[in-house]
Amino acid sequence: MDAETRAVHIDGPARLELVDHVLDALDGLWADAPHVADRDRTLFALAVSEVATNMVQHTDDPNGVTLTVDIRVSSDDLLATLTDTAPPAEIDWDGVEMPDADSESGRGLALSTAALDELRHYADARGNTWRLRRRLAP
């Protein structure tokens, strides 16, 4: 990591409290990264929150599933890697779109896709890994 890179690592049971901890950690990173514009902070935090919340809400066993979050803030980009130990999730990427205004759910991946430059999901027998990246303007 270069001198301008800041990082945080968080892990624990896949519960909503962990998502709160991740957002608090992001707030701490922003304090050390004044070069990150408010718009980039807001959109990246929204995407991280949506993906992490989906990971927690779609697990059948929050006590038996671990969620690990690594976030890096550099001079060029914002990067988050979220990994869980849940069964592999099947994502219909062709079906990811913003639902109608009356819908009460289903916005998470659509919002995240719009907010990020890169959103990838990998799954295998060990669990799921999500990679979220937002490039920063020079």
Automatic annotation (TrEMBL):
SUPFAM superfamilies reported for this sequence: ATPase domain of HSP90 chaperone/DNA topoisomerase II/histidine kinase
Domain Histidine kinase/HSP90-like ATPase: 13-133
Keywords, alphabetical: ATP-binding, Kinase, Nucleotide-binding, Serine/threonine-protein kinase, Transferase
InterPro entries assigned: Anti-sigma-factor_SerPK (IPR050267), HATPase_C_sf (IPR036890), HATPase_dom (IPR003594)
Gene Ontology MF term list: ATP binding
Protein name (record): ATP-binding protein
